[in-house]
Specification:
heterodimer, A: 323 residues, mainly alpha, globular, B: 278 residues, 13 helices
């Protein structure tokens, strides 16, 4: 923590106390009502849009979870308590889909993290075309998850897909694999697409964090005779652990709520075997059963909240142990 | 540690980074190549990694057989309008959140961040019903309104980071010279942080250009569809025409890639602003 303070000394002095500062302070105190109105006026447009088109539907959606609400039968929208939830928990599909969601998140995020970390470490050293390189590996971000799904759906095509062709050419698998027609390989295919998409995000976040580690810490470590691996685990990783922890958490939440790739590649098929909770929710919404879709949404929120709480507790505890 | 690198380590690094570059570029290369193959060449063995002849037939079929030009116009109109308005509104909010201290500030920021956490799909059904009541279903301007709301939270957080980098002495000087706060914002601050604002606009534009599930829910008539909605229709049919599909994909990706190339540095800055503070 105190390292930050020492790095600040180099920057512009934080004491900007002068006549204008004092003047503006007193002016700010004088017109508090006017100041409050200004704040309100500047925030109001944003608040109206987000309130009407984001918060209102979310809250309305939450109460639908406790009602019988089906577009095909709007005459009966009675309150059913936890009826929708009971229906979900009684459906054996739900447990398959829940398991799929966990597989989807874990199998995607672990390779993304490892590859992203490696790329970030290797990108730390400057080389001639580093800027160009970064821009090139950054480009998947310009593409929507949906289109990435389409790209990979075509590459994983069982008959004319380039992946089967490459596997045959390298001698790994001579017989073409019907990737998206088989539940297991379909899951592998969507996860591969997601890994490809997400590595850059980790690489860039981790690189930014790495660059925040002051050089003199490394110099001190080198003077003390610390080797490369030891420096990585004893200095680099602990120094950026907060950033790493939060990046992973945000990513878990985000990937859990990310149906686009699966939607484009398999639509949840074959036989519902690659559905995750969010693709399932969209399917149910399209059927018109808003009640059940909302109940699923609340289950997602609850699961993510519980996970985040435990996760944050775990990383905090670990920090206390190490410090 | 950064200064020493052995020869094998250097080789491993170059090899790995090179391999990753190939892996990153390949899917894009493949869709471009596919789009230039004649339909017969797409579905024949052996697969060609460089077409024997370049054909534009997939592109012409795309425009002849579907109303792709209409989809492009819709996407352009909706994305440009929504991104412009969202950037302006976010600028105001971000300015206040960066410059003023007030009691409910954390609450406002949290309210923006929460929208990024909750699955948006919980709002899909009620949003549709709301738009039915407002008579804005199947209306491109209705979609613009929804997209503005979609863009504001992240855009505000991103712009707030850029505002924080600009010393507030700048607009205080302008205000002492008689500018109102609003005109100080637009005359003094905006010119200074133009790159950040352009990046925010591009980020919003690309998000709207790529958005799928809201537009699928709200746009039903063919003449109102945006590109992703139309593509979603293409893939739900039983046989996908991969020739025109790849042409459509290339035309969709191209504009966003060009825009991102301009703004990627600032977008990265905006995204990592929180991380660097460690």
């Amino acid at each position: 923590m105190f390292r930050h303070i020492s790095t600040n000394v180099k920057g512009r002095p934080s004491t900007r106390v002068g006549a204008p500062e004092a003047l503006s302070r007193s002016r700010r105190r004088q017109f508090t009502i006017r100041r409050g109105l200004a704040i309100l006026a500047f925030l109001l447009p944003a608040a109206i849009f987000v309130g009407v088109f984001t918060y209102y539907p979310m809250i309305a959606g939450s109460q639908m979870a406790f009602r019988n609400w089906n577009l095909n039968n709007l005459t009966d929208t009675s309150w059913v308590g936890f009826g929708n939830f009971r229906k979900i928990f009684a459906d054996p599909n739900f447990y398959v889909i829940l398991w799929n969601s966990v597989v989807w998140v874990v199998a995607s995020i672990v390779p993304q993290f490892i590859l992203g970390f490696a790329i970030a470490l290797w990108l730390r050293r400057n080389f001639r075309f580093r800027g160009v390189y970064q821009a090139l590996i950054f480009f998947p971000w310009a593409i929507s998850g949906f289109l990435i799904g389409i790209l990979f759906r075509w590459m994983f095509n069982g008959e004319f897909g380039v992946i089967n062709d490459l596997l045959a050419k390298t001698g790994i698998s001579e017989t073409p694999i019907p990737w998206l027609a088989d539940p297991t390989t379909a899951m592998v295919a969507v996860v591969v697409a997601n890994i490809w998409y997400g590595v850059t995000f980790f690489a860039i976040m981790i690189l930014a964090a790495l660059q925040s580690v002051p050089e003199d810490v490394y110099e001190a470590a080198a003077l003390d005779g610390s080797g490369k691996v030891r420096t990585l685990f004893a200095i680099t990783i602990p120094y950026i652990s907060t950033t790493l922890g939060l990046t992973v958490l945000l990513r878990v939440i985000w990937i859990f709520n990310f149906p686009d790739i699966i939607w484009a590649m398999t639509g949840g098929g074959p036989a519902n075997q690659t559905h995750i909770i969010t693709t399932w929710m969209i399917t149910i919404t399209q059927r018109g059963d808003y009640g059940q879709a909302s109940a699923l949404g609340l289950i997602v929120v609850a699961l993510l909240l519980i996970f985040s709480a435990f996760y944050l507790m775990a990383i905090r505890q670990k920090k206390e142990v190490t410090s | 540690m950064i200064n020493r690198e052995t020869m094998p380590a250097r080789l491993v690094r170059i090899l790995f980074l090179g391999l990753w570059l190939v892996i990153t570029i390949f899917p894009l290369y493949w869709i471009v190549i596919t789009s230039f193959k004649a339909p017969g060449a797409i579905f024949s063995f052996p697969l060609t990694y460089w077409p024997t002849e370049f054909s534009f037939i997939n592109y012409t079929t795309l425009f002849e057989k579907s109303r792709f030009a209409t989809y492009v116009v819709n996407s352009l109109l909706v994305s440009t309008l929504a991104a412009t308005i969202a950037t302006l509104i976010s600028m105001l909010a971000a300015y206040v959140l960066a410059r003023f201290e007030f009691r409910s500030k954390t609450a406002v920021l949290m309210a923006f961040l929460v929208t990024q956490m909750i699955p948006a799909f919980i709002a899909l059904g009620p949003l549709y019903l709301l738009m039915v009541q407002l008579k804005l279903v199947d209306n491109r301007f209705g979609l613009v309104l929804v997209y503005i709301a979609l863009c504001i939270p992240f855009c505000t957080v991103m712009l707030r980071g850029f505002f924080a980098n600009i010393p507030d002495a700048l607009e205080e000087a302008a205000m002492i010279d008689g500018c109102s706060r609003l005109s100080a914002l637009f005359r003094v601050i905006v010119p200074v942080m133009k790159p950040g604002i352009v990046a925010a606009f591009i980020f919003n534009f690309v998000n709207c250009w790529n958005e799928l599930f809201l537009s699928v829910t709200l746009m039903n008539k063919d003449e109102n569809k945006t590109i992703p909605t139309a593509l979603n229709g293409f893939i739900s049919s039983f046989t996908i025409d991969w020739g025109s599909m790849s042409a459509a994909a290339v035309l969709t990706i191209l504009p966003t890639m060009i825009l991102f190339a301009f703004a990627s540095r600032y977008i990265v800055q905006g995204l990592t602003a929180g991380a660097v503070k460690g």
